[in-house]
Amino acid sequence: MAIDYECNECGGTSPDLDETVLHDLVVNIVRGNHADALIDINRLVRDHPNADALSERIAIARAAA
User: Fold this and answer.
1) Rounded alpha-carbon distances, angstroms, from residue 41 to 25, 33, 48, 57, 63
2) CA 21 to CA 18: how far, in whole Å?
3) Contact 9, 27 (CB under 8 A)
4) pLDDT (tens digit per residue) in 16-46
5) Tell me, what DSSP letter sits at residue 15?
6) What pTM was estimated for this model as a whole?
7) What confidence category does residue 1 fall into, taking pLDDT thresholds of 50, 70 and 90?
8) 26, 17 in Cβ contact below 8 A?
9) Of 3, 12, 19, 27, which one has the greatest count of Cβ atoms within 10 A?
């Protein structure tokens, strides 16, 4: 049984958790919700197998948020 994850912002669903969190991130950045955008960035990379390799991208995304 597939699980659909729900976007916190618009209520849309996707079976891909990363896609859903990324959508939340984009919506939060567009709306100027910087604190929520940082939370979404952390959710995206928290359990990523290459989190160390993403450190530069994380810093850029945090600066943009």
Assistant:
1) 7, 12, 11, 10, 11
2) 5
3) yes
4) 767 777 778 888 888 999 898 888 888 777 7
5) S
6) 0.56
7) very low
8) no
9) 27
Instruction: Reduce the DSSP state of residue 6 to 3 states and report it.
Output: strand
Predicted pLDDT at 32? 93
**Token output for 50:** 């290459």
Q: What is the mean pLDDT of the chain?
A: 76
For the chain, the farthest-separated pair of C-alpha atoms sits apart, in whole angstroms, at 39
Residue 57, both tokens:
């991208």
Tokens of 21: 């969190």
Residue with tokens 């729900």: 6
Instruction: Name the token pair of 23.
Output: 């959508």
